[in-house]
Amino acid sequence: MELRKINIEDAFYEWQFITELPAEENGLENSYHGISYEEYVEKVLPKIMSYEHAENMPDWFVPETIFYLWDGEILVGEFHVRHHLTEALRTGSGHIGYSIRRDLRGKGYGTAGLKLTLEKAREIIPEEEVFFRVKKDNIASKRVLEKNRAYVTGEDDEHLFMRIRKQ
């Protein structure tokens, strides 16, 4: 398995992945659900690739790098690494968000992909811990985090807040 940063060479597979994700699932919103390949390549891909070097972005924006998890020639998941936290992210979605293809869930890809993503995140983020938020009823994601040594630091009505030490 390998992580590849979002790129134009894999655009067709990235487009397939992103447009097949539901518009909303487990609190994650996908505003690109169902867009055409042409629109993805011409407008969306350049825009989301620019997020890594957030120039001319609003003050609230946090740079992020997007990685895709590949198992051989199959794109199985997407991982977003936010470079640092704002107060809203500290008590919100945290540093990393991810999704695994529905037909490949429950096969260990989330755990393996998060492990690889954490290696990248340790080089990117300045905080000593990597922050996460997971819905309480999303047992699979909670297990993925725990398998990567996450621990619960708090909760609200709907979510658990978890962290993983960078070490």
Q: What is the terminal separation in angstroms?
A: 23 Å
Anisotropy-based shape:
globular
CATH topology: Aminopeptidase
Radius of gyration: 15 Å
What is the H level of CATH, i.e. the homologous superfamily? Gcn5-related N-acetyltransferase (GNAT)
Determine and state the CATH class. Alpha Beta
Order of helices and strands: EHEEHEEHEHEHEE
> How many domains, in number, for the residues?
1
Cross-sheet strand order for the largest sheet: 1-4-5-6
Q: What is the helical fraction, as a range of percent?
A: 25-40%
**Mean pLDDT value:** 90
Write up what this structure looks like.
Helices cover 32% and strands 29% of the residues. With 167 residues, the chain is an alpha+beta fold. It has one domain (2-125): Gcn5-related N-acetyltransferase (GNAT) (Aminopeptidase). The strands form three sheets. It has a four-stranded antiparallel beta sheet, sandwiched between helices. A hairpin with a 2-residue loop joins β2 (24-25) and β3 (28-29). α1 packs across α2 (37-50). The longest helix is centred in the last third of the chain and has 16 residues, at 109-124. The two termini are 23 Å apart. The mean pLDDT is 90.
Task: Put the structure in a nutshell.
By secondary structure, this protein is α+β, with helices and mostly antiparallel strands.
